[in-house]
Structure formats: C-alpha cells, structure tokens
Amino acid sequence: MSADCCPEPVAGPVVGTRVLRHAWTALGPLRRGSWPATCSLEPGGRRETLAVLDGVLAGLYLAVDADGRLRWLGKAHRGSGVSTRLRDHLRHPERARVFTAVYVIEADPFSPRRAIEAAEGRAADAIGLRGRMGPRTWPVVTQTQWLALVTSRPGPRVRPPRLDGDSDGLGDVPA
C-alpha cells in the first residue's frame, strides 16, 4: 500500500475480444449501443472521454492499464452514469495513475438496477475474476436469477377507464 488512500488495483487478465464478449453477453437483452471501443483515460484525453461518456447512464465498464490488463470491472446506473463513476475512481491517485483506458458496454438506462448489478456479477464470473483481483466483490447470482432480472421490464401503464362514460378519452367531439 502506498501513501495514497487505497492500494493500487490488482491487475487482472488482458482485455481482449474474449473478455469483452463475456461482459457484452452479461448484459443480455439490456445491452444497447455498439461493440465497445477503447476510450483513453490518459491525462491528456480524460476530459474528452468523460465528456463523451456523460451520455451513458447505465452499463458495465472495464478500466485497463497501459498493458491492457483489467484493473476494474464496474457498473453504473442512471443517477451515477459511467462518467460519474469514472470521475469517482480517478479521484484516487493510485487509480488515476493506473487507469489508462476504459471499455464501456452500454445498457438501457431504464433497466432495473438489480439487473445491472446481476450483469456485473455474471461478467465477473464469466471472466474468472473472483479471488483474482484483491478484495473486490461482485454480486453472486444464479443463471435463473440473472435471466429473470435481465428479461424483466416494468409493465406498460394502463390508464383506468374514465368514470364519466367517455370511453375514448376524447371528451365530447362533434360528429
């Protein structure tokens, strides 16, 4: 541990197509957007990257070091979009020093929070991160629980019928 506030994040596997596919698949039907491309977190490119990511309200993100090794798998959901979460991480000097790029797998911002959390846990399991990246913990969900969460959607709101006999809701419209 350094004189900074936290230990440097432990290095995981190199992020390549296989790792990205696991994270992409973990979001299942909640996924939106295109295949994740690397975005710079180098000091000269951070501001631009974070500004672009301001529009991503939900999803999974994988922060990597200069060697392309995974240093953080995280999630974001609405109130704390991806750029907000990354800004929080970059306030820690040891993370700001190590994180050089990020891959973002965008999710539907109206996804249930628990579904995004479940997807993060599924991605960690698929990539094989448990016990390999220090004290980081991810939600544990079974395949059945994950499937129920990522396929659930809030039901459409059905307006109750009006009591004044106006069945179409248009009021008195001349014929």
Layout: helices, strands, pairs:
Elements: H1 17-27, E1 39-40, H2 46-53, E2 58-64, E3 70-77, H3 82-90, H4 93-98, E4 101-106, H5 113-127, H6 143-150
Helix pairs in contact: 1-5, 2-3, 5-6
- List segments where confidence is low: pLDDT < 50 over at least 5 consecutive residues: 167-175
How many DSSP-defined strands? 4
List the strand order in the largest sheet.
1-4-2-3
Spatial gap, N to C terminus: 79 Å
Rounded to an integer in angstroms, the radius of gyration calculated over CA atoms is 21 Å
**Helical content (DSSP H or I, runs of 4+):** 25-40%
- Percentage of β-strand residues: 5-15%
Put simply, the count of helices is 6
Class from helix and strand fractions: alpha+beta
Which shape, going by the Cα principal axes? globular
Characterize the largest beta sheet: strand count, sense, and whether it forms a barrel: 4 strands, antiparallel
Tell me briefly what this model is.
By secondary structure, the chain is of the alpha+beta class. 33% of the residues lie in helices and 13% in strands. The chain has a 4-stranded antiparallel β-sheet with strand order 1-4-2-3, with helices on both faces.
Describe the protein.
By secondary structure, the chain is of the alpha+beta class. The protein contains 6 helices and 4 strands, in the order αβαββααβαα. Residues 167-175 have low confidence and may be disordered.
